[in-house]
Amino acid sequence: MNSLSVRLGDVLGTNISVVLLKGISRIVELNPSVIDSQIDRLLDIFRCLVTNNAVNNDNIQRDEEVFQLASILLAVRSHGDTLSHVIGCYGNGWTLYRVGQESSCGGHHQLAVRLFSDLEVEVASESIYYWLNALGRLSKAELSLLHCHCDNISSCMDVLGAAVDSYHQVTTSLIVASTQTCAFTFSRDYCSLRARFLSALQRVLVTLQTARLCPPPAIADALSASTGDASIRYARVVSISAPLAAEFNALASDYRALYRRSFDSDSSSLRHLEGLREQCMLLCNALETLLVCSAAKSQSCGADTGHTNPTVLEEINALLWKQIATAQASIRGVGVGQVQLNCLQSIVQRIMGCPLQLPTSFFGNKQQTTIQLALTAGSKAAGETVVVNSNCQLVVKVEGVVQQQRTARRLSSQLKSGRLMRRVHKVFVKLNQQCINVVNSGQSHQLKPTQTPDDVYMEHSSLPKNEYFTMDFLLDFAQPGLYKLRFVAQVADNEGIVWDSGPSSELSVKSCAVETPYSKQFQTKPAQKTSS
Hints:
Elements: H1 2-12, H2 18-30, H3 39-53, H4 60-76, H5 80-86, H6 93-106, H7 109-120, H8 126-146, H9 153-177, H10 185-213, H11 218-227, H12 235-261, H13 267-292, H14 312-329, H15 338-353, E1 367-376, E2 386-389, E3 393-406, E4 426-438, E5 456-462, E6 468-476, E7 481-492, E8 498-499, E9 504-512, H16 517-520
Parallel strand pairs: 2-9
Antiparallel strand pairs: 1-3, 3-6, 4-5, 4-7, 7-8, 7-9
């Protein structure tokens, strides 16, 4: 390893190039400590590049070298302050934006705040302005969490509340910045989940304060003494903690749903979402085992299975799992004591102190998958209600086109345009047939009232050929009424993983009763008056 560091030092002494910096960046991703001895030399090269570019700012290769060097320095260690002072005089706005994006993905929010704030006032497009405004607000919210004094719980609750408000403003800015070609769907869903997560953390601290400062009522002690059940004394804490555990469980499910909708995301972004989902499950498990179930008995918590090269989020999760296990092992007797409360407070403080590294999909995907569905039922046009007889069946033909392409990138440093990270291997279409209005035809001679039929669920699959797929659904509408058909498309990649990234389409069908000579004899006739 030392010989590799020496060789890198010799190479850096010669003329640098974009290819060389890319190779160093790849080495740093695998082992950041290799380049530690060359940090000062890299900083000098970075200052020289920025200074020379102030004279001639039309060199595209120089812009790429500045970006690659900034990425290396941000990946090795925190040089946000140094880069902030040096890169402030750089004149290329696109390079500054790329460095700010790399800072957000690396958790260096102080540098990201300055870069996005400076770029915000230099753009002419309203959509780009609100996009940069959202990035700046997000970085400020995360920076406030990192600078929070964790010893004071009241201060932590205030910081969390302000961060939740900032994330709501970020979501609003993203909605305003959305266009027909760029809706920021992933970014908006991600910020919404982050706001809910921080709000739940704030409620955890409120629960801990309540358990510490508000003793159980006297009636609880009397009932506990009379019944011999010690858990009655902590029923109030359990009633507050149980909904919190359910909220974290719901957050984990929503993160999983966002994962399944992110078909075009890269592997690092999917790994990041999986880490956030695991963090929600960790907090749910901690609340259930340390507060809810600890009032009766202690239960064992889950274990973390890490990767060979874990990220910062995965390392924090593994550490928190061990901390929960240690706290459970030290619990003596039944009840909620300082061990459980201190453990939960430490977990919240560690999560707040861990810098959030935004996934690369937050800034856009490297590929785009588009699926178009077309429904054909008889001769009706799209949006019109299809009318069928109750004694007939209807065939609905579903046709679709799958289009995949690499997204446009400005520089040649990105991957080749012909390579896709994930390809569509199979398309699934799920049908939900629901009767929303039952029509009483008046032909039934039975005394039983008309009942709404149960929903019908069907699923067909097809392998796209030349980007085209088709499938048929044979449906029955025996009960007269109005039906709503909802078709939802899913895709499967080459590994067989199913993703919920397909579109949906709806169709209305009206089933009419058919009068027959046999059914007319059961129709009720008006009664005739008899003369007295």
